[in-house]
C-alpha cells in the first residue's frame, strides 16, 4: 500500500503526552472482541444515556432545520438559560453576556488559556489533576507549574503552596472542585482564601466546576459567588450526561468573553447547533428529576465501592465527596500501580486507570477507580480484584 513520508511534527508536540488509559481501553476492547468479559472502572463519563427530554429536543432541532451556525458565543437563549440556572441553583445573578458557550468545556479551557496566557507566563496546576490542562497551557506557550497536592489538604492546593509557588512570571491558578482524579472538593472558605491570594498578586483564578451537581456530601456552591468572581468553567458533559454532544461553557468578565468570542469566531466558528438546542432542555423539571435519580445512583455506588476497596487494603486518606472517581493510595498492595493495572486487566479482566495519567506526584502508588458502572458490575469487579490480590 502507498504510504507517503510523514512531514516533521512541530516541536510543541513533544510536550503532548497521550492518555495511558487509552492503551488499556484498547486492550480491554480487544479482549472483549475475543469474548472475554471486562469490568470497566476506568471510564470518565456517565454510563447513563443522555436524558430523554434532551435527546427529544435535539431530534426536534434537527427536524426543524436548526443545522446552521449560531453566534460564536452560543445561542442567546442558551446563554440566558445557563445564567438562569445559576440563579435557580445558587441564587446568583449572572449577566448572560458573561456566559460563553463552547465545544465542550475543553473548548472553554483552550479559549481561556489562549486569551489570558502570554508566552512564558506560569500557570499553577494541582498534581494530580486533569492532565489536559498542562497541554492547553503549553499550546498557549505558557509554562505549567505543578503544585504537588497532598491528602492532608484534600488533594487541593493550599494557600501556602500558592503563595510560596508564586513569582513575577505567575499569571494564573487553576483548580477543579470536585477534582478529577481525586473526587475531592474545596470548601467555600478554602476557595475564598485561594482567590484572595491570587487576586492580591494580580493573578487570575480559574475554577473548573465541570463535576458540579455530582457532590454527595456537604452543601454545593459556585465560585461565582465570590466577591472577586473567578473565571468558571462548566460543561453539559458530566452531570447532564452529554459527553458526546460536545458542549460546555465559561463564565468570565465581559472583556474576557469578548476576546474569547473573537477567538472562537476564528477557531470553532460556533458550538454545535443541534447540541445547543438539545441543551435548552437540560434545565427543565423533567430532566432535573432524571438527573436527581442518577445522582442518587452515583452516591450509592460511591458508598459501596469506597467501603469495598478499603476492605481490600486500598487507602483513601482524603474522603472523595464528588464526581465519579475514587483515587486510591495503593501503596499497601503494589509499588507499581501501572504494572498492577496492566496485570489486573490481563489476568482478572478489570480495567482501572493508573496514577500515571494524572501527573508526576507519586503516580506509582495511586489508582483511579471510576464508578461509572452498575452496582452489580462494581461488585463483580471488586470480587475479581480481591481474588487477584489474594493470589
Ligand atoms: C476536570 C475536567 N475538566 C474538563 C474536562 C473536559 O470535558 P468536556 O470537554 O467533555 O466538557 C474533563 C473531562 O474528563 C475533566 O475531567
Task: Fill in the CATH topology of the largest domain.
Answer: Aspartate Aminotransferase, domain 2
User: Quick one: CATH superfamily of the largest domain?
Assistant: Type I PLP-dependent aspartate aminotransferase-like (Major domain)
Radius of gyration, in Å, reads 21 Å
Number of domains: 2
Explain this structure.
The chain is α/β, with parallel strands linked by helices and 391 residues long. The protein has 2 domains: 11-49 and 287-390, Aspartate Aminotransferase, domain 1 (Alpha-Beta Complex), CATH 3.90.1150.10; 68-284, Aspartate Aminotransferase, domain 2, CATH 3.40.640.10. It has 12 helices and 12 strands. The protein has helices spanning 20-33, 52-63, 76-90, 104-116, 132-139, 159-165, 188-200, 254-267, 273-279, 285-311, 337-348, 375-390, and strands at residues 39-40, 99-102, 122-127, 143-148, 170-176, 204-208, 231-235, 248-251, 325-329, 350-351, 353-354, 366-370. The strands form 3 sheets. Strands 2-8-7-6-5-3-4 form a 7-stranded mixed beta sheet, sandwiched between helices. It has a 3-stranded antiparallel beta sheet with strand order 9-12-11. The protein has a two-stranded parallel sheet with strand order 1-10. α7 (188-200) links the parallel β5 (170-176) and β6 (204-208). α1 (20-33) runs parallel beside α11 (337-348) and α4 (104-116) packs across α8 (254-267). The termini are far apart. The mean pLDDT is 96. Pyridoxal-5'-phosphate is lined by residues 44, 104-106, 130, 176, 180, 208, 210, 235, 237, 243, 248.
